[in-house]
Design a protein that fits this description.
The chain has about 375 residues and is of the alpha+beta class. It has eleven helices and seven strands. β6 and β7 form a beta hairpin. α9 runs antiparallel to α10. The C terminus is likely disordered.
């Protein structure tokens, strides 16, 4: 308690009037205590006045300390030297008075130096706080700029995926389709050819069909046209079904029928998040199943992707000893994308599986709709 009071006295501002009032009150208190116990202070009447000077110098500084010295001398002369003859001071009184003045002066000087040091320290502390605040603001601006840059890169990536998907569909897939038709014509008109030639032609047709399917799948994975044409619900149903066929992992999708269309950036963010989660389940989780739940309430859109795999460590170290996220940069990018849309994402993992949850505020979706309309 005393330490708290002491710190409060040090840190609180000290008005000039209170500094001089401290000089008066401290000398009055010293005089009253000395007079009330005259028998104890008969030979050392200066001790309490010296304490008063110390207190005043500590609290008020040099000038109030000198004022306390003056008041102390007047009090000593009035109440403790009146018995002496006027104009005559004994040798002991003179020595006591000299010691008192010397000690009081030294104390006042030391306290003045202390106050200067405190002031300098306070100014340094304020300058340091100002510099820390400035650096913190600069760091915040840099983080904001980095976040905006990350968002721009994600948008550019989405646009590039859309362009590549369209390019694959309009060029490579179309060329393969034409090749397939040409091979079919050759097959029809070459029925009388050698058996080995017909077998090779049949293999070419089968390979062409496989190439067409692979190109179409790659195009859809880069950017499913259903996402633009029919919305998030249809795109997720298509992707979940294809993922189950390709991976052999039983995939359950729970999505409200009345979800409707959402802003484009929301649909892309949710689709990429689900895509990244299912990819990680296939690569790392060794889970027999995956569950995707999309819910829409009056205030938010929630995405929940879970599995029953082996879980994941919170961090993994590479060969150089640096730590990185188990999921890599994909989930980190999705977290940034979700946060840019005003939402948040968390990952829970244990021996019985992993769960990724993301929430996007519905107000953000509404504002996006207005800005996009």
């Amino acid at each position: 308690m005393s330490g708290v009071l002491f710190n409060w006295l040090i840190t609180q501002p000290r008005p000039v009037s209170l500094r001089y009032l401290a000089a008066v009150l401290s000398v009055i208190a010293a005089l009253m205590f000395t007079l009330s116990a005259r028998s104890l202070f008969a030979t050392t009447a200066y001790s309490l006045f010296l304490a008063a000077v110390m207190l005043t110098s500590w609290y008020g500084g040099l000038t109030p300390g000198l004022l306390a010295i003056l008041f102390s001398l007047l009090a000593l002369d009035r109440y403790f030297m009146s018995a002496e003859r006027v104009g005559v001071i004994s040798r002991d009184k003179f020595i006591h008075m000299s010691i008192f003045l010397l000690a009081a002066g030294i104390i006042s000087h030391l306290n003045r130096a202390r106050m200067r040091a405190e002031k300098s320290l306070m100014e340094s502390h304020q300058a340091l706080q100002s510099e820390v605040g400035k650096r913190t603001a600069d760091l915040q601006h840099a983080n904001d700029a980095l976040r905006r840059l990350s968002g721009q890169l994600m948008r550019l990536q989405d646009e590039e995926r859309r362009r590549m998907a369209r390019l694959l569909h309009e060029t490579v897939a179309q060329s393969l389709a034409v090749l397939k038709m040409d091979l079919a014509v050759v097959k029809r008109h070459g029925r009388g050819g050698a058996f080995k030639g017909r077998e090779a032609l049949q293999d070419a047709l089968a390979l062409t069909d496989e190439c067409i399917r692979e190109v179409r799948t790659l195009s859809y994975l880069l950017h499913p046209p259903l996402l633009d044409e029919a919305g998030l619900s249809s795109a997720l149903q298509w992707y979940a079904g294809g993922f189950e066929q390709r991976s052999g992992i039983k995939t359950q999708l729970d999505i409200p029928a009345e979800l409707g269309r959402l802003p484009r950036n929301i649909e892309i963010a949710v689709f990429r998040l689900v895509q990244e989660c299912l990819t990680n389940i296939h690569r790392h989780a060794e889970s027999p199943d995956a569950v995707i739940r999309i819910t829409k309430t009056g205030s938010s859109l929630a995405v929940d992707v879970s599995d029953h795999g082996r879980g994941m460590p919170s961090q993994t170290e590479n060969e150089s000893g640096d730590s990185y996220d188990f999921f890599g940069v994909g989930i980190t990018g999705m977290r940034e994308r979700v946060e840019q849309l005003g939402g948040y994402m968390e990952i829970q993992s244990g021996p019985r599986g992993t769960r990724v949850q993301a929430t996007l505020p519905f107000q953000e979706i509404a504002s996006c709709v207005q800005s996009g309309s």
